[in-house]
Write a structure and sequence with these properties.
The protein has 11 helices and 12 strands. By secondary structure, it is an alpha/beta fold. The strands form 2 sheets. It has an 8-stranded mixed sheet with strand order 6-7-8-3-9-10-12-11, with helices on both faces. The protein has a 4-stranded antiparallel sheet with strand order 2-1-4-5, covered by helices on one side.
Length: 355
Amino acid sequence: MGGLGWKSDDLMTSPTSLTASPLSLEQVNLTFHPRRSLSLELSTWLKRLSGRPAGSHGIQAVRGVNLALKTGEILAIVGESGSGKTTLGRLMTGLYHPDSGRVLWAGREVAGLNNKSRKNFRRRVQIIFQDPGSSLNPRFTAKAVVEEALIIHNLGSNTERHQRVAALLKEVGLPTEAAGRFSHEFSGGQRQRLSLARALALDPEILIADEPVSALDVSIQAQIINLLLNLRTRRALTLVFISHDLPLVRIIADRLAIMYGGRLMEVVDKSLLGKAPHHPYVLSLWASASGGGNNFILKGEPPDPASPPPGCPFAPRCREAIDICHVEIPLMTNFNPGFACACHRRRSPTEASNR
């Protein structure tokens, strides 16, 4: 979870006035079920033979998530690999549908939208992926990549689309002649710029950026982040930034949602970082990112998503865990409008103030 030494001077940020967004999640759960196979059955049998839990033959990627976006904010979704942050981002876009719970757009469930409404939703919520190379069609030129969404949504004439593509490429910092190139002819940073142009083609209100710089050279990362921040300001975008880089998100985000084992541990405004009664997991993350000492180093491994522990998923690694943590899932408690935490040891504002 170490950072890259980001400094606020390297990145351009701006204050925003935040109001409720039409996108929210209510008690969302999603489990991935692998195909049955001989190797899966053998693995299950060996686990049972050794006395270990065999799991439910499903990967519990997201569990019980409640979250509402605010218009114009940068919301950072933070967590270790396997915490469920990418899956949560794809649930927000409608690429995945929850097994239970609801993803709501303007008060309507995304999974139940008719074709016309779903098409409108797709225009309003777009995503850029972690690996731009694998998300771009290798047979398409840059022009075709960006233009495809305009064709699908029947927007503009051929001439208007051509002009629109040229304007988008310029907006993300690509030269006009790049329109005729294929994705393999671009560098990693240029491919991410192309992915961004594609996402912006439909003038979205919400942009979900799934670790957009983690696959790029360090020298290019600040350029892409600054481009995202500039576009967010110019276009009045709501930005969901998925990352594991704590020093970076601490600079650019308005609000942080920290995940562990498929659950939200904490949602906190940037202004309250270091002041709120943070979840023990969050304290460990901040300490590891800042070199806070051995007392905060996590021991053990993250939970197996196919066989999560009962109670709080962090309890087996938590220095503050008590008996109830191992048997009962803590509810998310709102301490004030800028801070919510799911921890039995941070159970009420009164308890928190006495700590």
